[in-house]
Amino acid sequence: MFLLVLALKSPAFADVSISASVDKNKVALNDSVRLSIVVQGPGNLPSPTLPDLSPFTVYSSGRSQSISFVNGQMSSSIQFNYLLTPKTPGHFTIAPFSVSVDGKSYQSEPIPIEVVQESPSPSAPNPGQQPPQTHSQAPGAFIKMTTDKTKVFLNEELVLSFRFYHRVSLVSNPEYRPSELSGFLYEDLPPPRNFVESVNGTSYRVTEIKTALFPTKTGKIVVPPAFLKIRVEDFNTDPFNNDFFNQFFAGGGREYELKTNSIEILVSPLPQEKRPQDFSGGVGSFKISASIDKSKTSVGEPVTLTVSIEGSGNIKSFSDPLFPAFTGFRKYDTASSLNLDKSKGRVEGSKVYKMILVPLTSGIQTIPPIAFSFLDPATRNYKTIKTNPIPLDIKPGKPSNPLVSSMNTQTPEIQKLQEEIRYIKSGTLPRRSFTWIYRSRWFLILNGVPVLVLLGSLIYRWRIFMIEKDPDHTRKQNAYRKAKKGLEKAQEALKEGRMEPASEKVLESLQTYLADHMLVPPAGLSLKSVQDFLQQAQVPSVTIQALRTLWEELQLIRFAPAQFRSADLEKIIEQSKEMIQRLERFSQRSKFSIYKNWILLLGILSVSSWIWGGELQEKFEHGNELYQKGIYQEALVQYEEILNQQGSSPMIEYNLGNTRYKMGEKGKAILHWRRAWRMDPRDSDTRHNLTFASSECGEPFVSDIPLLVWIQFLFHSLNLNEILLLWLLTLWVAGIFWSVIFVKRNKFFSRNNLILLATLSLLGVWGAFRFENEALQKWGVVTSSKAEVRSGPGQQFGVGFTVPEGRNVLILERSDRSSWIEIGIPQEGLKGWVEDKDVTQI
Fold first, then answer.
1. C-alpha distances in angstroms, 470 versus 463, 474, 742?
2. 233: pLDDT strictly greater than 80
3. Mean pLDDT of 349-378
4. C-alpha angle with apex 458: 456 to 461, nearest 5 degrees?
5. Helix runs in 120-265, H state only
6. Among the listed residues 837, 829, 827, 830, the one whose alpha carbon sits nearest the alpha carbon of residue 780
7. What are the distances in angstroms from CA 307 to CA 282, 355, 390?
8. Using CA atoms, how far apart are residues 488 and 486, in angstroms rounded to an integer?
9. Which residues pair with 73 in a beta bridge?
10. Residue 141: which H helix or E strand, with range?
11. ω into residue 191 within 30 of 0, thus cis?
């Protein structure tokens, strides 16, 4: 209460301040100094600007942040931690650290550091001080701490393993207090591993936690003990002592604090013998590769050279390689990115460097090999690896190339933080917000219409089946087939030289076809009755006249066959085929009119367009101007007002992600980028930013396997709306075509129908997977600096594991206590409970 009152009365609480401090001002050459920078102030605070720290090797050891609200005002405090290892002895002064907020700059005080050759003598322990009383083991439980090696080189990786063995039931979750590591950089190696191990013939359940250590000083370094507090069931209590309150407050068991032994690590300095001049501190096992974005270019046209160093070891801490002089090229500054992989129980990954080279002369030029030297602990020798020389075909170009003429050799250094993510979106805002069509009732209605059409065609087919029982209907249906068969027999007779039977068969086929449609006997059929029937059926007069001519020629052949040759009869047979087909098409014309209307309706319903515009365009452009000036807090306000008034869209979500990232809120940045990616998965800028930011939290957005990259790209080539619209269009086409098939009694298993069925099935499976993943399952992003995942919904439950900021998690369940939710990480088979404020749903 006193602290709260003091905070309310202090007017300086809302001011911006920056302070820097070290744990000691005198340090040995083989020791390290812990540097802490604290920035306090209202709202979201930027990262401080670091001064020249070249006398030291600088390691980042993380940061912590706290936020408080007083009288409705938010105040933040961010602490940045670094480890400084001196390079040479002497007296140094660390210049002030600075931070800029709302155009005003704030600075810390300078810090003097004295670096001496010898380590200061450690203070003698207080003989009167007693160590805390701990147990070496508990009944049925013990702990053990080991390292995979005890003799290492400076910066060489070793793995610290803590194991908890138990074969008894625990009353509550254990409380783990790890070793206080000094003299090491360290990386957690998640997740904890659970297994069963036999010790002296007894089986124990084992939980193992691993940490990668990188020593930052030489000599003997002691890893202090780790502690574990457990409460086990106690069956040896006095049966006559039934003190209910003692048993209740004791938690139903006996508490033990277990302690491991300490471990002594001997750290050797890096060998001076045969040490390469370009050695930059790499210790481990590495390989190097280089590539360019194109093999042919012109003078003045830039190419991008990408150099990748990958392997296992101290990837974070070694310096950049010594790049050669690129003769014949103008080189611009280098940007680098870091990717870490801890899935194999060690620290692995890669450092990728990108630089722009502008050729100055034409011809076949060669990009020289790039060397990288490192110490291999396995052989205890230095190794130098090189890339292959890369040929480049350079054509003559204009020396007045804008890139060459506008830049000189003293181009300002490219700021890496500005190059890590792509620039914001500009242009015209969409007039309407992005909406998911599966949430619309009209989408469900439109899915049901083709089913109703198909059902109607089945009813119609059943009605035709009932009509076909009528002999007259059957006679009409079989007329074309009989006539076609008769004409085929006429052709066979003509090939055998029998003209009279052939001519009679042609006339008989034509008369039988007409008589079947007129429902009269063929013997009593006359030309006049046929003409009257066709006129009533609204057959065109041209067709009737052609039939009259054909009829008369057949009658003439019948009574005077000598006047005709076989070629004339063959021509008449073809004319008879064409006439019967023409009459058959006319008789079926009315059956297709309804399908033409259906196809027209389908085209109207399938065509959709988005109306783009923007009522909040001015606010959007103002936000972009603020972002460009580096006023990220005010730009964020502009974008969020657009989001609240208009709704979500890919452009707004993308720009919000960029702004959050520039403000140091990586988790919220990934949240907005993932929303933008769901709406527009083909946007290369969004994919680039997600790939870069996700790698920092141990979850690669894109797989390292090229085949999986293509599969992922194809699977997410369309957003869910586009997949569902394609499904709807295919469903309408299938419903109409299959209705036609049922009405016309065509074969269902034709090639076109099978292609249509396969397309519909593929879209259905694709849409179902995406709908389940994006609509049914609830995914979220960790938006706090680190989420502590507990075994139950409450602070009283132990922490099982932690999830870094920006990690994608699955929201499984919400507790009755509204401030806790259950999350899962399917890739690693983990789940647990976190506070609601730590995770935001996508």
1. 12, 6, 20
2. no
3. 89
4. 110
5. 244-249
6. 837
7. 16, 9, 12
8. 5
9. 70
10. strand 141-147
11. yes
Beta-sheet pairing, 151-153 with 263-268: parallel
Contact by Cβ (8 Å): 811, 823? yes
Contacting residues for 769 by C-beta, under 8 A, at least 6 apart? none
Average pLDDT over residues 821-828: 83
Compute the average pLDDT of residues 92-106: 87
Q: Is 110 helix (H, G, I), strand (E, B) or coil?
A: coil
DSSP string, 754-809: HHHHHHHHHHHHHHHHHHIIIIISEEEEE-SSEEEEESSSSTTSPEEEEEETT-EE
Q: 310 pLDDT band (50/70/90 cuts)?
A: very high
Report the distance separating Cα 299 and Cα 360, nearest Å: 6
Residue with the larger pLDDT of the pair 488 and 707: 488
Which of the listed ranges 45-59, 288-302, 464-478 does the model predict with the highest average pLDDT? 288-302
Residue 670: is it exposed, middle or buried by C-beta count within 10 angstroms (0-12/13-18/19+)?
buried
Band of residue 103 on the pLDDT scale cut at 50, 70, 90: confident
Q: What is the pLDDT of residues 368-417, one digit of tens each?
A: 999 999 999 999 999 999 999 999 988 886 544 433 333 333 434 433 33
Distance CA 203, CA 655 (A): 56
Read off the amino acid at residue 735. Answer: G
Highest average pLDDT, of 214-223, 517-526, 724-733, comes from: 214-223
- Strand, coil or helix: 740: helix
Backbone angles phi, psi at 438, to 5 degrees: -70, -15
Task: Give the tokens for residue 281.
Answer: 């501190």
Report the amino acid identity of residue 172. Answer: S
> What are the two backbone dihedrals, phi and then psi, of residue 709, each rounded to the nearest 5 degrees?
-65, -45
For 667, the token pair is: 């988790």
Tell the burial category of 120 from Cβ atoms under 10 Å away from its Cβ (0-12, 13-18, 19+): exposed
The residue type of 116 is V
pLDDT at 58: 74
Question: How far is CA 662 from each of CA 628, 668, 785, 803, rounded to the nearest angstrom?
Answer: 11, 11, 15, 22
Nearest to 652 by CA among 663, 641, 662, 661: 641
Tokens 């990108």, residue?
A: 354
Kindly state the tokens that stand for 366.
């060669």
Contact between 310 and 349 under an 8 Å Cβ cutoff? The reply is: yes
- Strand-strand pairing, 141-147 and 158-166: antiparallel
Average pLDDT of the chain is 77
Sequence letter at residue 488: E
Task: Say how many residues make up the chain.
Answer: 842
For residue 806, is pLDDT > 50?
Answer: yes
Is 420:337 a contact under the CB 8 Å cutoff? yes
Q: Letter for the amino acid at 76?
A: S
- On the CB side of 27, CA atoms within 13 Å amount to 24
The tokens for 537 are 């059926």
Cα distance between residue 510 and residue 111, in whole Å: 112
Confidence of residue 557 (pLDDT cuts 50, 70, 90): confident
DSSP 281-346: S-BEEEEEEEEES-SEEETT--EEEEEEEEEEE-TTTSPPP-PPP-TTEEE---EEEEEEE-TTSS
For residue 564, the 8-state DSSP code is -
Report pLDDT digits (tens) over 7-58: 333 333 447 889 999 988 998 877 778 888 998 888 667 878 888 888 887 7
Would the pLDDT of 280 be above 50? Answer: yes
Nearest in space to 770 (alpha carbons), one of 434, 436, 443: 436
> Can you tell me the distance from the alpha carbon of 786 to that of 667, in angstroms, rounded to the nearest whole number?
10
Burial of 792 (0-12, 13-18, 19+ CB in 10 A): middle
Q: Which one-letter amino acid corresponds to residue 148?
A: D
In our burial notation (b when 16+ CB lie closer than 10 A, e otherwise), range 744-768 reads eeeeeeeeebeebeeebeebeebbe
Q: Is the pLDDT of residue 171 over 90?
A: no
- The DSSP code for 138 is B
